[in-house]
Amino acid sequence: MHIALFVACYNDTLFPETGIAVTRVLERLGHTVTFPLAQTCCGQMHYNTGYHREAVPLVRRFVEMFRDAEAVCVPSASCVAMMREHYEMMAEAENDAAFLADVRSLLPRVFEFSELLANRLQTEDVGATFEHSVTYHPSCHSLRMLHVGDAPTRLLRRVRGLSLLELPKKEQCCGFGGTFAVKNVDVSVAMLTEKQGCVVETGAEVVTALDNSCLMQIYGGLHRSGSAVRTMHIAEILASEGVAR
Amino acid sequence: MSVRVGKTDKAAAFPVAAKTALKNDQLRANVRRATDTIRGKRALRVEEMPDWQKLRDAASAIKAHTLRHLDEYLVEFEKNCELVGGKVHWARDADEANAIAVKLIKEYGGTEVIKVKTMTSDEVQMNVALEAAGITPIETDLADMIVQMGHDEPSHIVVPALHKNRFEVRDLFRETMQKPELTEQPEELTGAARAYLRERFLKVKIGVSGANFAIAETGGVCVVESEGNGRMCLTMPDVLITLVGVEKVIPRFEDLEVFLQLLPRSATGERMNPYNSLWCGVHPSDGPKAFHVILLDNGRTNLLHDEMERETLECIRCGACLNACPVYRETGGHAYGSIYSGPIGAILSPQLQSLEHSRSLPYASTLCGACYEVCPVKINIPEILIHLRGRVVREEQATLGGKLAVENLAMQGAAIAFKSQRRYEAAQRLAQAGQALFREGDQLENLPGMAGGWTKYRDLRAIPKQSFRDWWKSRSNGGNA
Questions:
Q1: The predicted structure's pLDDT at residue A245
Q2: Of A179, A245, B293, B366, which has the fewest CB atoms closer than 10 Å, so is most exposed?
Q3: Are B425 and B281 within one domain?
Q4: Does the beta carbon of B23 lie under 8 angstroms from any beta carbon of chain A?
Q5: Looking at this predicted complex, what is its ipTM?
Q6: Which of the residues B323, B418, B440, B465 would you substitute to probe the A interface, choosing the one with the greatest number of A C-beta atoms within 10 Å?
Q7: Are residues A115 and A151 in the same domain?
């Protein structure tokens, strides 16, 4: 399949290893990956903070860029949630029939990374080996907006050498929440403290998720506390080809 | 018209109030224990319902329909209520509602009233108005009584004293009831409350209540509760005054079938409430001899014109969103500066007052969606929060100060950068170069402005030299677009 990668602006800038991992996994499975260089941001930060007008050109840009893609892969559940929850409503408010038609036609071809693999491509074993204990944090947007269900854990269970440990209170938010993390610093950190405690309690070496935004928050707390638990986007685990014992 | 919602006009912004709440370890422990318990019970009672999602759909449909025809159903309620001997009064705002209540109580010669299940009376601060008129209000719902005795504020819309544990309640009772021998055994505490309240139930001749539902078809009113103190207040006095927000009306008696399945399961994790009181007008041989309903607007009808905002009024005040909210879990209810706390408070309080107060509340959420998931009437709270954030931003941008605010400038800058590949890549380079000022090994420290709130408490990995697009361009087969 020809898969267009929308890597997400913050992954592009702060977590390039995630985009690289996504590319490696998809290519290893025999797909062709393209990366339209003109892509920037899905508009989520602006929209969710209340800058709705400012987000519209970014949505138009995304839609124009990926309009003809066979499938779009996005390694960020919250960006996909932004698209599915708001793009149609935004296009309706713009009173632009062509724009709305493009949005409606494109959205069913946009997939979060784990959805693309487990549901669209029906591939659970991606040929990865990762000899570590891992706990999975189901990010709020993947859980309650995308309803990815067990797609991510189905993928993780097929990784050779990986032991998956259940995260206590896994469905509770990590406290990131975009600009919430800086507008409500104290509450955000209080929420993080609880999440971080749950992660450490599992005894896992690695905590993973579908969103580097949540992982950035969890890393922030773990690293500050001197914990050795690593944060890794699920794509990086699935790209791993370490030798199994 | 002056819309007031409790003491929101004097409340600190959410981040400030939350900071204070977060320092109170006892409060946080109490909130966690209580919400964990209720959540667990709710989950059990919801799981056993095969048609739960259909019930939610039905409730949402009934409420949405009613709100679109609120004018008709309110008038139908008034007509039918008065047909069976009730009297309906219309109050545009808090002051009008209080004036009507005071006038009625004085007409009946009352100097004391027993009150139950009326958060709406807290919204209009009725107790303050009554006391100013020389009338003593006595709260009889156990939790409301605890709040009143402690000169405290409610912190939860169903369990107003959720922030207090039984040791704190014991100390409060020992002091106010002069019973130094009381222990923290729940049976002893409720026994003491029972003795204290019975005296008042037998003595006071006027009751003030709220309502869970007002039924247009019958002109009847419904109150659900767990203690029976409500039943006392509704049946023992000679005069009953019921304060009802206009959004509480439902069209038909049979609609209760839906709501009385959803409400107790969502609110307290019970299959049904121990006490479900339903009454119509007055009856010569039973119950109050006079029955008055005050229908309160207080900003509600301002929400009707907008489809999304209107959804807020579908709320049946079950409190499930509070118990599910990870923000409420950390701060408790007082940080919201309103009697309406948690996710529903974050959308209701600011809207009732046309965003004049509580402007920080739409931002008091991570948009995690836990509230929407549990809401029995399917109010899309995260969506409404985002909508209100949009209103706040547009209003701020209309002022010079707002235009020049750091956040607005940053957002405008980002929007410009995101509109062009060239500018976006230039911004990436700038960030990669600019971070040298704050770089400590592989970490960023002491970032300026709002980002400083991040680095003060959390670590942050430095921005890698090579972005993903740099890597892509550097691949031998790259540069496809």
A1: 45
A2: A245
A3: no
A4: no
A5: 0.97
A6: B418
A7: no
| Among B409, B458, B463, B470, the residue to mutate for chain A (most A Cβ within 10 A) | B458
Residue A176 lies in a domain: yes
The whole-number pLDDT of residue B481 equals 44
Q: Does A18 touch chain B (CB under 8 A)?
A: yes
| B 335-394 near A (Cβ less than 8 A) | 362-370, 372-373, 383, 386, 388-394
Instruction: Please state the domain count of chain B.
Output: 2
Interchain CB contacts (distance < 8 Å): A and B? 195
Measured between alpha carbons, how far is B78 from B66 in angstroms, rounded to an integer? 15
Q: Is residue B318 part of a domain?
A: no
Q: Write down the pLDDT at residue B476.
A: 63
CB contact under 8 A, A223 and B472: no
| pLDDT for the residue B480 | 52
Tell me the sheet residues that pair with B87: B292
Q: What is the pLDDT of residue B285?
A: 86
CB A107 within 8 A of CB A87: yes
pLDDT for the residue B450: 86
Chain B segment 393-422 residues within 8 A of A by beta carbon are: 393-394, 407, 411-412, 414-415, 417-419, 421
- The closest CB to that of B453, out of A37, A86, A182, belongs to A182
Beta bridge partners of B461: B443
One-character DSSP codes across B283-322: BTTBS-SEEEEEEE-TTGGGGTTSHHHHGGGG-----HHH
Residue range of the domain that includes A56: 2-120
Domain with B449 in it: 419-474
Write out residues in chain B with pLDDT < 70, as ranges: 476-481
Q: Is residue B224 in some structural domain?
A: yes
The pLDDT assigned to A230 comes to 98
Residues 102-131 of A with CB under 8 A from B: none
Q: Are residues A154 and A232 in the same domain?
A: yes
DSSP secondary structure, B341-353, as one string: -HHHHHHHHHHHT
CATH number at A203 reads 3.40.50
Tell me the β-bridge partners of A111.
A73
A chain contacts of residue B467, beta-carbon cutoff 8 Å: 12-13, 16
**What does the pLDDT look like over A38-77, one tens digit per residue?**
999 999 999 999 999 999 999 999 999 999 999 999 999 9
- A149-189 pLDDT per residue, tens: 999 999 999 999 999 999 999 999 999 999 999 999 999 99
C-alpha distance from residue B250 to each of A85, B74, B214, B243, B295 (Å): 30, 9, 6, 15, 13
Q: Would B391 be classed as within a structural domain?
A: no
Flag whether residue B446 sits within 8 Å of chain A, measured between CB atoms. no
- For A96-151, the pLDDT digits (tens) are 999 999 999 999 999 999 999 999 999 999 999 999 999 999 999 999 999 999 99
Q: Could you tell me if residue B242 is inside a domain?
A: yes
For residue B256, the number of C-alpha atoms closer than 13 Å in the C-beta half-sphere is: 20
The one-letter amino acid at B149: M
pLDDT in tens, A189-220: 999 999 999 999 999 999 999 999 999 999 99
B305 burial class (0-12, 13-18, 19+ CB within 10 angstroms)? exposed
User: What is the number of other CB atoms lying within 10 angstroms of the CB of residue A18?
Assistant: 26
Residue A161 shares a structural domain with residue A202: yes
Residue A122 phi/psi, 5° resolution? Answer: 55, 40
First-last CA distance in chain A: 33
